[in-house]
Amino acid sequence: MSLLSATLSTIKPSPTISITTRAGELKAEGRDIISLSAGEPDFDTPDHIKAAGIAAIEAGHTRYTPPDGIPELKDAIAAKFARDNGLNYTRAQISVGTGGKQVLFNALKATLNPGDEVVIPAPYWVSYPDMVLLCGGVPVVVETGIETGYRLTPEALEAAITPRTKWLIFNSPSNPTGAGYDWQSLKALTDVLLRHPHVWVLSDDMYEHLAFGDFKFCTPAEVEPQLYDRTLTTNGVSKAYAMTGWRIGYAGGPEELIRAMRKVQSQTTSNPCSVSQWAALEALNGTQDFLAPNARMFEARRDAVVSALNACPGIDCPVPEGAFYVYPSIAGCIGKTSKGGTRIDTDEAFVTALLEETGVAVVHGAAFGTSPAFRVSYAASDAALKEACARIKAFCEGLT
Ligand code: PLP
Asked: Rounded to two decimals, what is the model's pTM?
């Protein structure tokens, strides 16, 4: 009898974490590596938030808390949803977990029966399909494509929905493409959902505060209030507040669902770290003044990276609306051979050769369900980005 469960064999380790680890190994060997593979801000948690964490330790907030969050943090989250998204939730409608990741997992674990389908637009965040599989569901991946700026169309959504559909996972701005849905394009999707009352919406708003130019962030339950009763709006402090290591994510949604998610969490991890909860409270209640300047800094990096990549032969890089990723197509590089002798048949071959030959780590598109492409995380210094783009250009120019 095999030690490992049949379910486990259906999933793979997170490819983004694997590549970041490989880049770290090469660095440890003394290689000059620029890693653009990790999805986290390149700066430290703001001081006032760190201070709240230290104060929480000193005040003795070091014990178990209610499994899905302290009431004070739930109130801060409710205030955030009202302030930023026009959404009203009571404490009983809020769940706090160990990162956005756990919150999403809890929701799927609490709701999926074997065979239930979850519609996931591709390119998708690497964890969505595997979480669905771990919870016994069936991921229904819907291709988007560079022509629509990697946005799901109402027609494609309509075609993907069946009587077994339980959720649509919606992520704007997106990891990995940075694509954002404006009010009108989101309304076109919510109109489809109104015709299918059995489908719930899992909105992953993790990159809400990284929205550029004229693009204004909006979320499904805000755009279509009739969906409020079947939407779970998830978010977290990881990206906007540079708190990836603190592990706090949260969600607002219908009470029955939040109760079910609490049950999952109470039998797995119990509460998210008590100290981190107090720090997250400060993140949400404290000054928000640094969010807009941070977004402008990322926007400038986006512009620099997009234009540098579009200057590389064989690469076509759309301009995304938010997050800190770009997702260039490498259709023009396929079939060629690198200077080091690697035939570029797939995007995985491209990123592997790029890492081994130039020391730049990016993630292949196949990991996100759309090929041939790769994801660049531009949460890195201007100097590192400039050097990385120059190396990518030289690599592409060397393909024959
Ligand atoms: N959702 C998306 C789209 C993400 O990119 C990430 C992290 O990369 C998460 C959720 C999870 O965030 P957390 O670190 O809070 O678990």
From this structure: 0.96
